[in-house]
Amino acid sequence: MARRATAERGTRHAPGRSDSEGDVAYDMAMTEGYGGDAMGDRGGRGRSRWSGSGGRWWVWVGRAVLWAFIIVVVVNGIRAPFERFTQPDSQPATSASPKTSFPTVEASAYALQFASAYLNYDEKNPAARATKLAPYLPENADQQLGWNGSGSMTLDSAQVAGVDVRDKNNAVVTLAVSVNGTWMQLAVPVYTSGGAMAIKGQPALMPTPRKATVPDAASITEDSAVETQLKTDLKGFFVAYAASDTASLDRFLAPNVSLSGLGGAVQFGGIKEVVVPEGGDRRHATVTVAWQVPSTARKAPAGELDQTYDLTIVRNQDKWDVEQLRGSTEPAGP
Predict the structure, then answer these.
(1) Would you state the pLDDT for residue 22?
(2) pTM to 2 decimals?
């Protein structure tokens, strides 16, 4: 046993070294041995391997952190749009505005029917008016809606002039009315709820719109040659237009254009004026036509009425075809 211990210690000490020096040498050798490869590196290779192993360990730690960051970014990038598409919309639906939810068409028709009962009355039979008004008025309303039972009124005609929506239940329908031969406007307060309607309050007579000042016609450079040609060519067009002679009308119309006409209500009396500006193969002309209306009086000349049209014309070789016919916005001449 003592010999074996001496032999083992002999492997740890170099000759001529003390026990302490041998221990240090042994530890260094073991340290170098662990840093080497499986075959056991010699000299400085063991120390170099140890240093490199520590560097690679930190590289692998950095790579792991980087990959973890990348995975988090990718997962969040995929999850975020998926959650946006799948989660319910948290924003409340936009409610319809009063102007779109209020039944303006129905209220207009309702106000027209009411006006017939409201603006027609006779002091000889006031009960008849109250009976006609009853379906339109609330239960506690005045049966005559402000009339004292005296006088008379006659509604000649009525048209809807506009609807002023105040909220989802209330609006004022303005009617253009002719009463006893005088034009005015009538503001009718209409209430609606759940499809039902009533006249909420007393109507109000309003003035008609005031007359506007019309500007003079814009100055243009006229094409006198085309104007002269159209005064002749358009005679046949307006003759056929007055009589609704579609076969003849087609000869004056551009391709793929159709026009019916006036069905013989008037007869062509002549072309008073043609205005055509200079331009290319497509022009906008203004034409004033005289229409003749038969007179009911014996031996009296036919009545004549001048009217102005806007025509869009296109050049077709040596003639002009009508592409569009419509009313004109040009000021009326003297």
Answers:
(1) 47
(2) 0.61
